[in-house]
Amino acid sequence: MRIFIGVRPLWAKGSDPYENFGEGECIMEQKRELKKNLGVATAMALVVGCVIGSGVFFKPQAIYTATGGAPGLGMIAWVITGLASIAAALTFAEVAIMIPKTGGMVAYLEEIYNPVVGFLAGWVQTILFYPAMISALAVVCAQQAGLFIGEGFTVPLAIGIIILIIFLNNLGSKVGGSIQVVFTICKLIPLILLMIFGFVKGSGANPIFSPMVGDGLSPAVVLGQLMVAILFAFEGWTGVGAIAGEMKNPSRDLPIAIVGGVSVIMGVYFIINIAYLWVLPASELATLTAPASAVALKVFGDIGGKIISVGIMISVFGACNGFVLSGSRVAYSLAAEGNFPYSRNLAKLNNAQVPTNSIILVGGIGCIYAISGQFNLLTDLAVFSSWTFYTLTFIGVMKLRKDRPDAVRTYKVPLYPVVPIIAVVSGVYVIINQLFMSGLQSTVLSVGSIVIMLIGLPVYSVVMKNKEKKKTAANAEKILT
Description:
Layout: E1 7-10, E2 25-28, H1 40-51, H2 55-58, H3 60-66, H4 72-98, H5 105-112, H6 115-149, H7 154-169, H8 173-201, H9 219-234, H10 250-279, H11 282-285, H12 291-336, H13 343-346, H14 356-370, H15 375-403, H16 418-437, H17 440-480
Helix pairs in contact: 1-10, 4-9, 4-10, 4-15, 4-16, 5-6, 5-15, 6-7, 6-12, 6-14, 6-15, 6-17, 7-12, 7-14, 8-10, 8-12, 9-15, 9-16, 12-14, 15-16, 15-17, 16-17
């Protein structure tokens, strides 16, 4: 996840009641040169640390529900989706390194296409993607807590978790960052224990690779549903470009770090899912909202299982904190440039020098989404909204190769154009599958995501008009003085 820093807004006071709706000027602080001291091993560890989160603990339910309780295609889908993520990350990295601007994907799409596309990416990330991820993680964290306090409190607990994270992040970026480090370490403990003891204490009597899908199901349609579910578990590879400036030899080492890192993740996911099946059959995992906890209870007994469940809950809390931390910086980055509604308010820093209103905005929308109490629904919504713009970025690599053939590229995606084409095809497949092939709920979610994106068009128009009006007034004032 990319964190935005070094943006300091300078705002002029005014009495216009609409002046907050997109205006302002900003200055970008000069960034010091980053030290190029990262090798392959460190870079690979960063990739792994950014990606492994909550999906591996909770997605088996969605996976085996989609397959009709059959394990085969679910297991294969972890590998297919991992390979698609490798192609996506390798492709994305070329754009990230070629356009090293604050704002991440927003800046990339703005430069590749036009400012409207860039704004829509930032709009969807702020209003939809990050809040949906935050609410989904808060919901499963609350569901885990239900193992200790009883069921029926998921929604109020989820909202309480988000409010707590908002409060902690408003204490300063050091607090939010420290939480992230501690909880990242904690998430590895239940992973390792479940992998080891799942094989040691499981019966191994359940089928793992057959049947592929349940009776009457189409493998092509089911695979699309599985990819959407599993892509949530691989979310985080978009941050790979952020480490390139600190690598000794990015053109050589970055693809190794990406392929190596995502391969390690794919291996971990594949092994732990075999461990789950070693203990419980796919048909049973499909019925469990917290499959990893159920496996832990089976393997370790009531007390040991609940200890592992606490570890999973800590891991999920840390992931939720990470999305509040990074999502609020997307909103702040846009506001600091005057390119978002109510920019003046969203760009304000509190006494701890963090964008308090941006944190409240992203977290507050997450609280609204959490009312649904639906983890899989929220993650599917987030994945669809993000992969729409990821796919545009993949296409952008080929567009830049055509438009700027002589541009300096310290890193080029290997096996061009094969790898970008794989990334584009994967993205298009996910989008089409969600829109037309995965049932009414999926179609409604996808159309809702598109509607929210399109609402951004009139918002952008108003923001730009007010920004232009401010510039005209400022220029007139300069002439008069």
